[in-house]
Sequence to fold (456 residues):
Amino acid sequence: MNIQIHFLGASGTVTGSKFLLQSEKFCLLVDCGLFQGKKELRNLNWGPLPVAAKDIDAVLLTHGHLDHTGYLPVLVRNGFKGPVYGTNPTLDISKIILYDSARIQENEAERANQEGYSKHHPAKPLYTVQEVDTAARFFKGLPPSRWVQIVPEVKARFQYNGHIIGSTFIELDIHNRRFVFSGDVGRLNDLLLFKPLRPKKADFLFLESTYGARIHPEEKDTIPAIASIINETVARGGSLFIPSFSVGRSQLLMYILWQLSKEKRIPEIPMIIDSPMGLSVLELLYRSRDWHKLDEKEFIEMCRNFKIVDNFKETLDWREDERSKIVIAGSGMMTGGRILNYLETNSADPKNTLLFVGYQAEETRGRKILEGAKEVKVYGKILPFRMQVEEIEGLSAHADQQELLNWVKNIKNQPENIFLIHGESESSVALQNALLEKYTWESEIPDLFSIKSIVL
Fold:
């Protein structure tokens, strides 16, 4: 059997995860993500795939983040009618994120048309809420750690790997050969999530390399750093704004802030979660307690310490409130979401602090600010940016280089091929060198839209 692997996303970049396995007998798509960041990448979301959507037998999702699920409504609109497999929490998160994404796109298109700042006439969303409704009908939940026949030639198993609730790596057995897609590998010592499971066999390994060039700071250094940033911001009369992914990092931040407040290491100020999906995610976290470490009592106590915003009027009220406060708002890379509404009224005040706690892809607002931008474009307007900027790397949901090397060390066989994906060039090359030095394993870094033929 000859299998062609199409690297349709997350190759040479960290967004748009899509890996197509095509043979004369089946066609499977592992992840179906949206491109973010660079304009030339975002434009790819509007283009066709190299295979007709109707010819894809099934989609398998490693987890629910937008860069792994956000193209699903487009795929269904273009004719896909097969099942979309994932763990139940992954499919629940996917629905939450896709509906939020569609609403943001619809609202931004409407605002662009009203205010006339789009180059497109009229501006249109990539997909609508109604199209998310349609896509969600194809979702089919699978239990973790159990082999399932996906098509006659392929069995699949979804294995816990931390990162976010429901997240897994995916093993495919095809003609007695094991294909392993890492998804996004979580941390060894996450405060909320359990340690990732590790593969024991991999003939063909598709390994993320987001932080392949970095070693994250230890937790014992990270939490005091957050406390220090809060205290310094409040001392100068400012507020702390944290753009954060609404699934995963926001809940970890809630836990840390709750602990700091309980221990009286930070002042008593309002702590706000501002995301349309915030309440839905917390409800999912409550229902999915077997996927994380918090018990029911701890979860309820943590939530009582936060004001959870779920309508836009509250956002407008809070952004005008001059009291010192902590605001956690999406989106994590500042490509959209409520964080932009706070920037509109707070970006010019140097008393305020903008704290980054997650990865910022190339050419996103977040990356530009981290690189020293003095202006930021929001809803067609150029705003002065004078806030203090801080970055905490220790809260990343992605494994660092040492954790990735640890994740693969239980693989008993020598993989025939290792493909380093989901990373920018510097990170992928660093991990490539580390794998060679530690295990003498050769690996390759596929280009976007490249094709690899594998003969079984």
About this structure: The chain has a mean pLDDT of 93. The longest helix spans residues 88-115. Residues 219-391 form a domain with the Rossmann fold fold (CATH 3.40.50.10890).
